[in-house]
Amino acid sequence: MQETENKMKDQKYIGKSAVRIDGKVKVSGAAEFIDDLDFGPDLLYAAIVESKFAHAVINKIDTSDAEKIPGVVKIVTGKDFPFRFGLYMHDRFIFAQDRVRFVGEQIGAVIARDAATALKAAKLVKVDYTELPAILNVEQSLTKDAFLIHPELRYYKHVPWFFPKGETNIAHLRKVRKGDVQKGFKEADFIFEDTYTVPRYAHCAIEVHGAVGLYDNSDRLTVWTASQSPYTQRNLFAEALAPLGLSHKDIRVVTPFIGGGFGGKAGVSMEILGAALAIAMKGRPVKVLWSRAQEFYNTYQRQGLTARIKVGLKKDGTIIAMDNILNWDAGAYVEYGANVVNAAGLSASGPYNIPNVSIDSVCIYTNLPPGGPYRGFGYSEFLFGLESHLNEIAKKMKIDPIQLRRKNAIREGDILNYGGKMNANGLIEAIDKVEKEIEWNKKETSSDPNKAIGKGIALFWKAPAMPPNASSSAFLKFNEDGSINILISGMEIGQGLLTVMAQIAAEVLTVPPEKIRVETPDTDRNPYEWQTVGSHVTWGCGRAVESAAIDAREQIFDIVERALGKDRKSLYLDDECVKSKTDTNFSLSLRDFIIAGIQKPDGSYRGGPILGRGMFMPEFTSALSDPETSQGGHPNVHYTVGASAVKIEVDRQTGKVKIPKVVLAVDVGKALNPDLINGQITGGLLQGIATVLYEDMRFNEKGKLINANFTDYKIPTSMEIPDEIVPIIIEVPQPDGPSGARGVGEHTMIPCAPMIANAVEDALGIRIKSMPITAEKIAMNLKHSL
Amino acid sequence: MRQEIQFKLNGEAIALEVNPNEVLLEVLRDRLGVKSPKCGCDKGDCGTCTVMINGKTIRSCLVLAIEVDGQEVVTLEGLMDSGLTPLQKSFIEHNSFQCGFCAPGMILSATELLAKNHKPNKHEIQEALSGNLCRCTGYSPIINAITDLTTKKK
Ligand code: FES
Ligand code: FES
Fold first, then answer.
1. Taking CB atoms and a 6 Å cutoff, what residues make up the pocket around ligand 2?
2. Minimal Cα distance from A674: which residue of B?
3. CB of A290 within 8 Å of any CB in chain B?
4. Residues B71 and B26 in one domain
5. Nearest beta carbon to residue A36 from set B35, B98, B132
6. Are residues B62 and B90 located together in one domain of the fold?
7. Under a CB-based contact definition with an 8 Å cutoff, are residues A313 and A189 in contact?
8. Closest ligand 2 atom to Cα of B98
9. Which of B45, B93, B137 lies at the smallest CB-CB distance from A710?
10. Which of A3, A129, A303, A613 makes the best surface tag, with the fewest CB within 10 Å?
11. What would the pLDDT profile of A40-95 be if each residue is shown by its tens digit?
């Protein structure tokens, strides 16, 4: 493991709840988002011609009526861009070619002078279809004679760790085999099996997706996008448009602030339209901005899951075998979603040490919108079943559910499903702390006979899902006054990345974060970052920034040594000055020389502008493993673990759930900025609680999403928050993280669904095995159980 | 038929010709370049388009531009004549916002609340913000910043 240099000594900026360096720009309204950028009166607007059917052949597209509308500049369809693309598997086209595969899929675009004209004309484009059988669930998709959604699946280009099954609707099958699961079940004293289901969910970032493209007359393509992934987008645009002769150097992606991502703005979804339409309209900027409805039905959705879970235990509660089959409703295109299925498959035994494991994680095409990354990346989904099931097991075996978990919890050095070793972690400490904080052993009853009180717990873990060569880099520039600009392409998506990167550099260079500016990426200016996903940028990009700061520091010492003859080994930085351990009178302010250099007695100078450069790639990872067992590789860099517990109060008549208290303990390695971590906990918890109590995507029998708005797909308001939230930060250092840190962004959402399900069971004695667990569902179940 | 309207925008007198079906949010953003009100849903559900008309918050995606004829419109830009307000400063100190997309609307709703009620309790704050959706923060850091400001001794 590549260890970090800067840790555990007295730290001045790291570990402090510094205020965000982007606080002012955000509360003053100065922060610019994609729709706030100005492109002048030349700007054109695009509206999309969308599929009416979930599955159909396109026979003919008639644009003649639309073309007659004044203000329409151009109409583009699939024939203009017959190129496949995708992040991990090339199964998409920019516009549908001969077939549409979900309701709302883009068939073409009308480009016009203004948005209203474009929209009006798009409605006049006539598409002649022949309907095909629409496959709307995984059971249907897996039947033997199921209609093939991608007949050419076997020819698709994909990453080497995917295993598509040609002539079926299975786009990828991740098989995990550890130990001998048959033998494990034979030796088990108890076996419990059940099935749990999770529907699809929407990210609901408050800002919609948008992209503006300009292919100027010198053949340079610039695309401004609301995105978590500027470099991945540049790469995919270049790949998809390579037949047109575009090179990476001629493509520039600029990502201003984004109004929430949560995975939904990772990879490339609608942004490809910004690039393609710009190509179609050389010389003019073209904007495409999703409506809230499109935001629901034509970006990534969180995939649905049917999980069959089978667990074998010894009498004393030791889990000795687990056999899980995860069938994922991955939607019409899986270019990103198949990797969710992959990552979840590798870890679907949860944070437990189990000697014999069998997991099939199956990525299944359906004629619903494309699935993809959503905060938690598959872990929220499988943990709903697994953590619910463990409570059922505990109940049947008459073991305390926390005891059952503590007994089986994974510890440092335990063997992971793919054969690697579990990293150092504070899982047991997390369990102990939430148990105490929620007063687990105190049985509580409500004074109101209409209300029942229940408590629930769930453990969680998650590793970043990334290619083995995902890397980060950073530049650090000093300015004349000793202030600093840091250039990275990790994206500020609300988590506070800019601030934490400033804190990391501040610690090395002794320049306070207020004197450091870090801005959102522009691929022309900022160096490479794979993408801001998987809760990995604090860790990966943080290492790059740390090494850029160290690089700058070494250059500083270099200059002082060369110009003043100081012994380099004695030099150190303190309070924005270079000082010497051997010459205590020596102190040279950084601002005096980091641009100008140091003057020698003869009037000449030594030095020059200080420019730090840093890079990080986790060189110990590998995705190569046996496809039948997943043994042999090292796909995951590390897991972040934790535990969460909740106390709820349920109304016995209406089923309405109130949350008096929720506790979440997470091992972050090192809290670089505790306040920002608390922010992740508060926000992630509510987002997770919403998936179990309120939200639910509903499709009609034709595959059309029927609640594509905030009136019918209700996300929580300020009225729906828990009364009390207790965040608990645990710090068992990650040896290769900056100052020992590891990621935390996604983890705070993951335990919510099972923890609430378990609390409902505790309160009322009913086990609900399908999400969401709405008031109506609880009330219905109560009625039936009477 | 275009129609001339006159109104005050952040203290400045504006005279403008608009179509009767033009929405205030579009006029503010696209014609007058005032970008703090955002469009999160275009349907009255999210509150990112919040502005004040005569001191009362409204959703500018639901208001026609002709309706503000003769009225006084204030957006977030208009609150900062003498720099950041104490409320904005409190939001910065509490790291209240994450992505910040909801911030302009949220700040206007909170400003309206504090103008009417100097010491709102938690429930009153929750109610005042209930029309402004935030997907990032879980609301507590926003509520805490308001509570802290109003309970701090001057
Ligand atoms: S844009 Fe006006 S309420 Fe959402
Ligand atoms: S801070 Fe992101 S929506 Fe409120």
1. A 206, 260, 494; B 97-102, 134-137
2. B95
3. no
4. yes
5. B35
6. no
7. yes
8. 1
9. B45
10. A3
11. 999 999 999 999 999 999 999 999 999 999 999 999 999 999 989 999 999 999 99
Crossing angle between the packed helical segments A379-397 and A401-408, to the nearest 10 degrees: 120
Query: Closest by alpha carbon to B110, among B142, B154, B81?
Result: B142
Q: Whose CA is nearest to atom 4 of ligand 2?
A: B134
Chain A CB within 8 Å of residue B143 CB? yes
CATH of the domain at B40: 3.10.20.30
Angle, CA B99 vertex, CA B97 and CA B105 arms, to 5°: 65
Among A33, A206, A295, A710, residue to substitute to test ligand 2 (most atoms within 8 Å of Cβ) = A206
What one-letter code names the amino acid at A589? S
The whole-angstrom separation of Cα A480 and Cα A609 is 9
Q: Strand pairing partners for A57?
A: A99, A130
pLDDT at A459: 98
pLDDT for the residue numbered A1: 46
- For residue A258, the CA-to-ligand 2 centroid distance in Å is 10
pLDDT at position B73 is 98
pTM of structure:
0.97
CATH number for the domain spanning B130: value is 1.10.150.120
- Kindly state whether residues B11 and B36 are assigned to the same domain: yes
User: Among B51, B77, B103, which residue terminates a domain?
Assistant: B77
Chain A nearest CA to B92, separation (Å): 5
CA–CA separation, B132 vs B107, rounded Å? 10
Q: Could you give the CA distance from residue A307 to residue A305 in angstroms, rounded to a whole number?
A: 6
Tokens 């879970």 sit at which residue? A309
A271 phi and psi, to 5 degrees? -60, -25
Closest Cα partner for B33 from A210, A29, A271? A29
ipTM of this predicted structure? 0.98
Lookup: tokens for A784: 């039936």
DSSP letters for A694-750: T----B-TTS-BS--STTTSPPP-GGGS-SEEEEEEE----TTSGGG----TTTTTT
**What is the domain range of residue B27?**
3-77
pLDDT more than 90, % of chain B: 97
Pocket test for ligand 1, best of B23, B53, B59, B63 (most atoms within 8 A of CB): B59
Selecting from B45, B103, B129 the residue whose C-beta is nearest the C-beta of A26 gives B103
What kind and span of H or E run contains A570?
Answer: none
Q: Give the orientation angle of helix A230-241 with respect to helix A271-280, to 10 degrees.
A: 40
DSSP H or E segment with residue A113: none
Q: What's the DSSP call for residue A449?
A: T
Could you give the C-alpha distances from A719 to A678, A759, B130, B139, in angstroms and in order?
20, 21, 6, 9
Judge whether A23 is closer than 8 Å to chain B, CB to CB.
yes
Q: What is the mean pLDDT of residues A98-121?
A: 98
Task: Flag whether pLDDT at A580 surpasses 90.
Answer: yes
| Domains held by chain A: number | 3
